[in-house]
Specification:
The chain is α/β, with parallel strands linked by helices. The protein has two domains: 185 residues, 3-Layer(aba) Sandwich (Rossmann fold); 124 residues, no CATH class. Helices cover 32% and strands 23% of the residues. It is globular, with a radius of gyration of 23 Å. The N and C termini lie far apart (57 Å). The model has no long low-confidence stretch (mean pLDDT 88).
Length: 347
């Protein structure tokens, strides 16, 4: 693709990281070359397990997505480091062989475990089989029907490589516009020749090799175990938005904790109900607050590890926090966010 030379001021620009996975390494390389405006040497993937490139996409006429595409080696010899490349990923494309469609389940479980929120497109690369044949062979069984229903998976028909990025862009933009942090999943088909442009490229596909590395920083929280503990402590979970815990604190305001990764967001009490549209904070509903643990905790409850324990401690602490029992680093963040220029001018 051509690099974007000049960008009109009316365009909104988003920079996102995408991982490219799947056992068809040669086809993935061609996919990356076809879509990228700039690309490092493919030899990087053989040496360090990943190759990077940049994909520029204009979406819906006035949105620009600058994608940084990480083409990750999924072969046996690089499986142990694959998970180290996941942190910061907002979208994933997985190229699936028409002969190994069941790999969808393995890659899905791996990706979902490693990323709190993901926009994911599986693209089945068609060479000798038809869409009807694939659907009849793999997608008519009860396992897949349950999988599709439980995960709310969109089934598309044929998508070109550019349309795959368009689908990812639609997912991301919907979340941005609606201020949502939801997963989006799709399964589509892409003809082999559209990717390789009739080059003589081997269609072979590696077996799925599980990555032994799961990032303790970016992995998805075991929310089912955490919610059971919260219910026992009579801490209410909002049915309308079950991925968040909202805590109103009389001293500071409202803290919102995203249960999938433990991120804490804050809305100052003096901003809630303020109608001054000229204020620089007008329209800004919540701010991120960094809260980390200095020491490790211990639990005898199955499913609660360090990250789950940290979220639990955040919830309990913030419910009754005041200026005397919060660390200075957190109080400093709250005070900076709560600063009101309007109140300052009255003094």
């Amino acid at each position: 693709m051509d690099s974007l030379k000049s960008i009109p001021s009316e365009y909104s620009i988003f920079k996102k990281k995408i991982c490219l996975l799947g056992g068809q390494e040669l086809i993935k390389n061609e996919f990356q070359r076809k879509m990228s405006s700039s690309c490092l040497s493919i030899q990087n993937k053989n040496n360090i397990g990943v190759n990077l490139s940049k994909v520029d996409l204009i979406h819906e006429n006035h949105y620009i997505f600058e994608y940084y595409l990480w083409n990750i080696h999924c072969g046996k010899e690089k499986a142990f480091i694959r998970g180290t490349y996941y942190p910061g990923t907002e979208a994933v494309i997985v190229l699936i062989s028409e002969n190994k469609v069941d790999q969808i389940f393995s890659y899905f479980n791996e990706i979902k475990a490693n990323l709190p929120v993901v926009n994911l497109v599986f693209s089945i690369v068609l060479k000798d089989r038809t869409i009807e044949d694939i659907e009849q062979t793999y997608f008519k069984n009860q396992k897949f029907k349950n999988f599709r229903k439980e995960e709310n998976i969109i089934i598309s028909k044929t998508l070109s490589p550019k349309q795959i990025f368009g689908q990812i862009s639609t997912f991301l933009l919907d979340n941005i516009k609606q201020n949502k942090t939801r997963d989006n999943f799709a399964i589509a088909y892409t003809p082999f020749n559209i990717i390789v442009n009739n080059k003589q490229i081997d269609y072979s596909c590696d077996e799925y090799y599980e990555s032994s590395y799961i990032s303790s920083y970016s992995r998805r929280i075991n929310t089912s175990s955490l919610k059971k503990v919260l219910e026992k402590l009579d801490i209410e979970i909002n049915d309308k938005n079950p991925d968040y815990i909202n805590i109103f604190n009389d001293n500071f305001g409202t803290f919102s904790i995203f249960l999938r990764n433990g991120n804490v967001y804050f809305s100052p009490i003096n901003c809630q109900g303020c109608k001054d549209k000229r204020c620089v904070k007008s329209g800004k509903k919540k701010y991120f607050i960094c809260i980390t643990n200095k020491t490790k905790g211990w639990s005898n409850i199955r499913g609660l590890d360090q990250k789950e324990l940290l979220i639990l401690s955040k919830i309990i602490t913030l419910m009754d926090a005041d200026k005397n029992n919060l660390p200075e680093s957190i109080l400093d963040q709250i005070n900076k966010i709560s600063y009101c220029p309007k109140e300052k001018s009255k003094m």
